[in-house]
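Problem 12. The chain below contains 306 residues. Write out its predicted structure in token notation.
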Amino acid sequence: MTESAVSQSPKKLSEAIESYGLQEYVLQLEVDGLAVVPPEVHGFPQARLDEMVDILLAEAEKMVGCAFSLDRGPHAKVDFPADAFSLSAFSEETGELSQFLIQRLASLHRVFRDLAVNPVAVALIRHMVGRKVTRFSSHNSFIKWQGDYGYGSSLGIHADQMAVPLPWGHAALTANTNWCLTDYSLEGGAFAYVPGSHKFGARPVQPKAAQMAVPVEAPRGSLIVFHGATWHGAFPRKIAGMRISVANYYRHLMITSQEDIQGAFDRSLAEDSDNPELFRELAGFADAFPYNTPNQPVPRVAARTG
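Solution.
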């Protein structure tokens, strides 16, 4: 990245961005609204990512009732509830679903808490949202196997902050990560996005949004980071096997979180992580809002003197 390119960025680069050498990914985020960070840059060990796969496959079996494997997906035919006609709230199509979420990962195992405070991911997220105002929103895993439907023809294209009223500004109100625990390819059900869509300042309109979408093809271990206004979704997986990812989602502290981390998370688990102080800050444990008891001072009649 050239010095002039950095100087034209709307935001000053933080010490963390500089120290980790993330300038080129900041530029990608500015231009495209999404950046792919390779394993040698984010530094999270591949062995620990593989450990996550084992944990998630075991958890999937526990939740669904049949074994799962990377080469086969579910080892039995599975059915979704009758009202689960679509995993995309932005599509009215129906089809055979081939994906579900494992949620509240930070409560499941320490390896997911360590991933949530990965310093490279957090530095890029804070660059978009703000250094002091970034908080956790949710920690989930997408468990996906072969299926022609996926999200349907819409590809599930949406923007994560689209529930927030327009107009949107340059700063991200939310920002997301997608950790590729398996290879991402078009036929393998890759992440889909519309480059530069974070600058549109608008919600996706179909079918144009799906027609503009391109796949994010990346090797196992890659980190995908993107702006909350970036239009994105996913292609269906056309080949055998599974695509597994972890989505650590972050928000501005004035945006409601998806998961009730402040109220329902076992706070002692924060101490069992690579960076307890950072985990507590991003969890918002010391935030003034939301409050459940009065938190402002009240005057009392002054004591008489003399």
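Discussion. The first strand starts at residue 34 and ends at 37. Students who got a different answer should revisit the alignment rule from Section 12.3.
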